[in-house]
């Protein structure tokens, strides 16, 4: 299962075969007044028995970590402990948290040392599907399993029969089931990142999930892989997208019928189990059509839950996000360079880029590769202002670009306005694509903008955006 990069954003869909659907339930933890979450070594049955279990890293000994559920406007209070032998942190991906709670080691907090702890506490103004993971150690800590889902339920949720999280993880395993230790490979960094040879859904390989005919599911899909992009095909079933990166969107069928989801991204879909009594519906990843495989299978029982699929409303209420003022926006041009088959900057900037490449930096934002968290900011924004970032991907690879601390609207792709003007915190850019995003810079602090292919981030594709009060 190797990463394919020779297709455009739409192009990979046109040759894909149409096949089927899936679901599975992770461990859930009740959201009380004080939660505890411990990063530790454990084991997981990633390969089908009787093959051996795999040593992994997990939160609380679970893989994935405990599913944390809250209601909108709740306050999270969580005591994090590190039982690993390496420093760590917890980043709350997609949540609009105060800077001191963002979990970026060395930038917003000191790393949590072995045997140490850290207290996270913040309000949850936005309903939606989010997740948590370390923000240090490159791809290794996430690649060894440290990830979990965080769900903030709406005050009045849409009606479904079951609300399930699907956390997708990608593993590079040795023949004996151990995780391969080549997390810093130069080849991965220069190409599509660390693509594994084994995929799990909620820690299980290819689960078979029982559903009742005409049961309605809300599937909260989380891509917790370090590099793999998924293009999920549900075959004869008809998924309806109702939220992206936790933010409600007008219910619609996914483009070309396939749910495309890059690393760090989430998609909430409503799915009716309409395959008929006794039938099976496989869910397949078609991102690389010549390497398609089954992620899971929905197994329909013989007793329908109801005579036909329900006609309940699927529209979610909006979150209280500050609308960007495009007429007053400050515009920034941001260009991504580097990697194999990418266009390098020319002229006066070329020698500086070559020097950075000699230091192991392979990816650049406006000609500069990130060196550390004390780099000068790419953008300095006055608090309350609207920022419009026109991003151009001059590389031969896909990049899921993630912004911390804010949620942005996707304004256009390749000069064409987006159909849904969706809110996101991570946008997937195809090779050579141009994307415009806009957001209200209302959350003060230093925030990372980076590629969520973590080998790309570690090799330079990261920058800071500073939001500050006017002086």
Examine the secondary-structure arrangement and name the CATH architecture of the largest domain.
Answer: Sandwich
The tally of domains stands at 2
Strand content: 35-45%
Helix coverage percent: under 10%
Question: What is the CATH fold-level name of the largest domain?
Answer: Immunoglobulin-like
Compact description:
By secondary structure, the protein is mainly β. It has helices at residues 11-14, 140-143, 186-190, 350-358, 454-458, and strands spanning 28-29, 35-44, 54-59, 65-71, 75-82, 91-93, 117-123, 128-133, 148-153, 162-171, 198-201, 208-211, 216-223, 230-233, 240-244, 247-252, 258-261, 266-272, 280-285, 293-300, 330-338, 363-365, 379-382, 386-393, 399-403, 408-413, 416-417, 423-424, 426-429, 434-440, 445-451, 462-468.
List keywords for this structure.
471 residues; mainly beta; Immunoglobulin-like; 2 domains; 6-stranded mixed beta sheet; globular; disordered N terminus
Describe this structure in words.
It comes from Limimaricola pyoseonensis. Keywords: Capsid protein, Cell cycle, Cell division, Metal-binding, Oxidoreductase, Signal, Virion. One of its GO terms (biological process) is cell division. Residues 51-155, 163-274, 356-468 form the Plastocyanin-like domain. This is Multicopper oxidase with three cupredoxin domains (Includes cell division protein FtsP and spore coat protein CotA). The chain is mainly beta and 471 residues long. The chain folds into 2 domains: 11-300, Cupredoxins -  blue copper proteins (Immunoglobulin-like), CATH 2.60.40; 326-468, Cupredoxins -  blue copper proteins (Immunoglobulin-like), CATH 2.60.40.420. It is 6% helix and 39% strand. It contains 5 helices and 32 strands. The chain has helices spanning 11-14, 140-143, 186-190, 350-358, 454-458; strands at residues 28-29, 35-44, 54-59, 65-71, 75-82, 91-93, 117-123, 128-133, 148-153, 162-171, 198-201, 208-211, 216-223, 230-233, 240-244, 247-252, 258-261, 266-272, 280-285, 293-300, 330-338, 363-365, 379-382, 386-393, 399-403, 408-413, 416-417, 423-424, 426-429, 434-440, 445-451, 462-468. Strands 21, 22, 24, 26, 27, 28 and 30 form a 7-stranded mixed β-sheet that branches. Mean pLDDT is 90; it is low at 1-25.
């Amino acid at each position: 299962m190797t990463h394919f990069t020779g297709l455009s954003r739409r192009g990979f869909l046109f040759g894909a075969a149409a096949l089927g659907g899936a679901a599975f339930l992770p461990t859930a933890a009740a959201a009380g007044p004080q939660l505890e979450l411990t990063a530790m070594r454990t084991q997981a049955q990633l390969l089908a028995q009787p093959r051996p279990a795999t040593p992994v890293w997990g939160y609380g000994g679970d893989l994935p970590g405990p599913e944390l559920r809250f209601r909108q406007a709740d306050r999270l209070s969580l005591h994090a402990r590190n039982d690993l032998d390496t420093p760590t942190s917890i980043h709350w991906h997609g949540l609009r948290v105060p800077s001191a709670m963002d979990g970026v080691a060395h930038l917003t907090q000191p790393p949590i040392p072995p045997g140490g702890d850290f207290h996270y506490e913040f309000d949850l103004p936005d309903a939606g599907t989010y997740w948590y993971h370390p923000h240090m150690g490159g791809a290794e800590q996430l690649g060894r399993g440290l990830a979990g889902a965080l769900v903030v339920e709406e005050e009045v949720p849409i009606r479904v029969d079951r609300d399930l999280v699907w956390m997708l993880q990608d593993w590079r395993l040795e023949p004996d089931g151990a995780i391969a230790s080549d997390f810093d490979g130069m080849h991965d960094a220069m190409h599509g990142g660390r693509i594994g040879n084994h995929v799990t859904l909620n820690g299980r390989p290819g689960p078979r999930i029982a559903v009742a005919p005409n049961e309605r599911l809300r599937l909260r899909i989380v891509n917790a892989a370090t590099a793999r992009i998924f293009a999920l095909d549900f075959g004869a079933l008809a998924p309806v997208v109702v939220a992206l990166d936790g933010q409600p969107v007008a219910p619609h069928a996914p483009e070309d019928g396939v749910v495309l989801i890059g690393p760090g991204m989430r998609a909430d879909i409503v799915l009716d189990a309409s395959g008929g009594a006794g039938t099976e519906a496989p869910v397949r990843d078609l991102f690389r059509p010549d390497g398609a495989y089954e992620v899971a299978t929905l197994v329909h029982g013989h007793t329908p839950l109801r005579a036909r699929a329900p006609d309940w409303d699927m529209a979610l209420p909006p979150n209280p996000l500050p609308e960007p003022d495009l007429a007053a926006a400050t515009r920034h041009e941001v260009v991504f360079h580097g990697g194999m088959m990418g266009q390098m900057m020319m002229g006066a900037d070329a020698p500086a880029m070559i020097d950075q490449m000699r230091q192991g930096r392979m990816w650049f934002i406006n000609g500069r590769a990130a060196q550390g968290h004390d780099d000068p900011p790419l953008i300095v924004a006055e608090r309350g202002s609207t920022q419009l970032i026109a991003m151009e991907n001059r590389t031969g690879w896909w990049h899921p670009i993630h912004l911390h601390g804010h949620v942005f609207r996707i304004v256009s792709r390749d000069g064409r306005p987006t159909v849904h003007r969706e809110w996101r915190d991570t946008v997937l850019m195809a090779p050579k694509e141009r994307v415009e995003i806009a957001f209200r810079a209302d959350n003060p602090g230093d925030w990372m903008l980076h590629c969520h292919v973590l080998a790309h981030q570690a090799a330079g594709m990261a920058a800071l955006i500073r939001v500050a009060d006017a002086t």
